Amino acid sequence: MSSNAVVCAIGAARLEQLGHGASPPTVGRLLRKSGYSLRIHVKKQEASAAHADRQPQFEVLESQKWVFQEEHNRQWWPAVTPSTADATIGGCVAMNVNGKNAWKCGSFGEHLLSLTVLLATGQVLTLTPESNPQFFQALVGSAGLLGIITSITLQLQRITSGSVDVLVRSAASLGEIFTIFQEEYSADFLESWVDGFAGGRYLGRGIVTCTRFSDMCDKELFTGTHHH
């Protein structure tokens, strides 16, 4: 194993111990980006992972663990998600679910690029909205009754953060709820809860939850850094 590969492997192992998995090539890229050389005597590497020449580099990796989370976990997200964390991707396709952004993103099926399905006959088909639109649309939302979906290719959306900013607004009537919807049209997600027992001039009163992906990175949110 080359000297560079040893350094990257040690760095990846250290990050794994911290609970932030990263491949050795990714470690090498981050170290080079931070201005560190990967050249070091092989015997020193094998003798101790905490060698003085290496320790500052590991400290840089640990201090930038949020980089790995944001680059590998938090940049992409399904355009449509249901209101439960228990749903699977296959279940979302089978029920063609919608979310709190249905007015702008439609249903889950509108973001599918291809499906591979195993039919009861044993035949395996790979379908796209263009190659076989009728069968493709029939499968989406069929509750799994037409076949077993074995592969899904889904178009994701890029997001600014894994956290969101939530604004809750009250409304005295159904008309006010619709007005808030119009005023908050730029939100990423909108949801209203309506009081089903109110009547008279309070008919349709409720609250509207307006949610946007946060502009602050997750590191700032979770370490208590604030902008004024």
Cα(first) to Cα(last) distance is 50 Å
Mean pLDDT: 76
Strand residues, percent: 15-25%
CATH topology heading of the largest domain: Uridine Diphospho-n-acetylenolpyruvylglucosamine Reductase, domain 3
Strands side by side in the biggest sheet: 3-2-4
Per DSSP, the total helix count is: 10
Structural classification: alpha+beta
The arrangement of helices and strands along the chain is HHHHHEHHEEHEEEHEEH
Number of self-contained structural domains: 3
Judging from the principal axes of the Cα atoms, what is the shape?
A: flat
Instruction: Detail the poorly predicted runs.
Output: 40-54, 221-228
Write the layout of secondary structure elements.
Blueprint: H1 3-17, H2 24-33, H3 42-47, H4 55-63, H5 65-72, E1 76-78, H6 89-95, H7 102-105, E2 112-118, E3 124-127, H8 133-139, E4 148-154, E5 156-158, E6 164-171, H9 174-183, E7 189-194, E8 206-213, H10 218-222
Antiparallel strand pairs: 1-5, 2-3, 2-4, 6-8, 7-8
Helix pairs in contact: 1-2
What does this structure look like?
There is one protein chain. The protein is of the alpha+beta class. The protein folds into 3 domains: 3-72, no CATH class; 78-158, Uridine Diphospho-n-acetylenolpyruvylglucosamine Reductase, domain 3; 164-222. Helix content is 36%, strand content 20%. The strands form 3 sheets. It has a 3-stranded antiparallel beta sheet, with helices on one face. Helix 1 packs across helix 2. The protein starts with a helix and ends in a 6-residue tail after the last helix.
